Amino acid sequence: MIRNLITAFFIRGFVAACNLAILLITSRHLGSAVLGQVSLLVLNITVIQTLLDVYSGPALVHFIPRSNIKRVYVTGLLWILSGVILLNAVLYFIDSGTHQLWMHLFFLSFIATSHAFHLVMILGKEKIESYNFLIFLQPAVLLAVLAVNVFVFGIRSVQSNIIAMYVSWGVSVLISTVRIIVILRNTETTMDSPKFLRILRNGAVNQLGNLAHILSNRYNYYILTSAMVVGIYSAATSLIESAWIISASVSPIVLTYVANRSDKVEGGLLTFLLAKVCFLISVIVVLTLMIVPQAIFTFVLGQDFDNVKEIMLYLSPGVLCISFSSILSHYFSGLGQQRVMLIANCSGLVITLCSSYWFIEHYGVLGACYTASLAYTMQSLVLTVVFMRENSLGFFSLFSLKNEIALLRNRKN
Q1: C-alpha to C-alpha distance for 293 and 299, rounded to whole angstroms
Q2: Do residues 373 and 318 make contact, with C-beta atoms less than 8 angstroms apart?
Q3: Is 31 helix (H, G, I), strand (E, B) or coil?
Q4: Which residues fall within 8 angstroms of residue 273, CB to CB, at 6 or more apart?
Q5: By the 8 A CB rule, do 117 and 140 touch?
Q6: 1: pLDDT strictly greater than 70
Q7: Exposed e or buried b per residue across 32-70, where buried means at least 16 C-beta atoms within 10 angstroms of its C-beta
Q8: Is the CB of residue 120 less than 8 Å from the CB of residue 58?
Q9: Distance between CA atoms of residues 244 and 12, nearest Å
């Protein structure tokens, strides 16, 4: 496990560096308006993917080790194809903002969701090396193609990013398909298939929770005043959320560890230890970002982004809370207890829906920060309280590593 954690950390570090470079190229050379367009397109893709992940998402990891994987895979592909058609049609009619890029939204959402489904299949079979490689590959290709588009071909529009998305997700899907074929050939097929409705029931709870989590912050994109403001806000969000690099590295390991083992007590203590470590490292990352002068952010990102550090500051409390609670959420996912995450994330979304219009109307982009931090804090509070109750942990265990260290010593012995 330690080796997987270290590998995952370096992979996520590389991914974070790629995403930062993509942000810098887009913001400095294409401008805040293009960044806003790209952010809204990616948000719509994410919403579609999250809804389709009801069947093909992380909740499926719980069933993959126990199921006929060929049937699970074929059903997943049919689900994705039909879902992409339906959801894009719905978005086209209810959101006029998608009309300009509707064809790209259709194809990119299909490719991106297929890529995510392949990752889930690979993760469910505990092929961590293949999973990490694919996590590494997609942003690396995206960055390379974007750089060529901007600096070689001189494409200074949203098309530069769109082309890069097609190539990066397309290459990743092709390579992951080869790996999936190998897994299907080498996997026992006599196991029973889980009931389709059971997967949907489990996944629906999980993905509705994920969608609520996403919209707890990203819903603000839809109500900010312009694409330029969305671009500035999304740049600050991307930078401050780099603090999640550690928890993003650890979460898949926690998910597969808990899903594939029966010792709930050991899984809980290990999860709690990793959540604390992720939080402490995230604090260091946030403090480092806060030390950087605003002038440097403006120089690197461009003149449009002269208040990005202030936005990051007001987003940071909620981001730090999520760096801790995201580990706990994957623990519950590994146990198949998606309802806990649904309740937590919906509590955050309720705060967003009730407060975002008022805050943004009175405080502009900073109002979006207030809403996001309040929502993230509420989500984290609910997850932490439930986790500690289920594992019989007292309040002061939040500030101690005694039980977790004892666990690690016992494992060595």
Answers
A1: 10
A2: yes
A3: coil
A4: 401, 404, 407, 408
A5: no
A6: no
A7: bbbbbbbbbbbbbbbbbbbbbbbbbbbbbbbbbeebbbe
A8: yes
A9: 9
Estimate to the nearest angstrom the gap between the alpha carbon of 295 and the chain centroid.
30
Whether 96 has a pLDDT exceeding 70, the answer reads no
User: Could you tell me which of 257, 245, 333 has the C-alpha nearest to residue 57?
Assistant: 333
Q: Percent of the chain scored above 70 by pLDDT?
A: 91
Q: Is the pLDDT at 412 greater than 60, yes or no?
A: no
Instruction: Calculate the CA 406 to chain-centre distance.
Output: 32
Residues in contact with 303: Cβ distance below 8 Å, sequence separation at least 6, in sequence order: none
Alpha carbon distance 211, 29 (integer Å): 31
d(CA 26, CA 157): 9
pLDDT tens-digit readout, 97-154: 667 888 999 999 999 999 999 999 998 887 877 888 898 899 999 999 999 999 999 9
pLDDT of residue 139: 95
pLDDT one-digit tens code per residue, 155-189: 999 999 999 999 999 999 999 999 999 888 877 65
The percent helix, strand, coil of the chain (3-state, each to 5) is 90, 0, 10
The pair of three-digit structure tokens given for residue 158, joined into one six-digit string: 């949203």
The dihedral built from the CA positions of residue 242, 378, 231 and 365, taken in this order, carries a sign that is: negative
Q: Does 44 have pLDDT greater than 90?
A: yes
Angle separating helix axes 338-363 and 196-223, nearest 10 degrees: 10
Asked if residue 254 has pLDDT above 80, the reply is yes
Nearest-5° Cα angle at 373, 47 to 213: 25
CA pair distance 19, 161, nearest whole angstrom: 12
* pLDDT attached to residue 245: 82
- Residue at token pair 């120089």: 299
Alpha carbon 327 to chain centroid, angstroms: 12
- Would you say the C-alpha torsion 287, 34, 15, 212 has a positive or negative sign? positive
Angle between helices 102-124 and 128-151 (to 10 degrees): 150
Helix axes 227-240, 308-334, angle to 10 degrees: 60
CA distance 8 to 379: 25
Task: Name the packing angle between helices 2-25 and 245-259 (round to 10°).
Answer: 140
CB atoms within 10 A of CB 398: 14
What whole-number distance in Å separates Cα of residue 170 and Cα of residue 110?
Answer: 10
Position 375 pLDDT exceeds 80:
yes
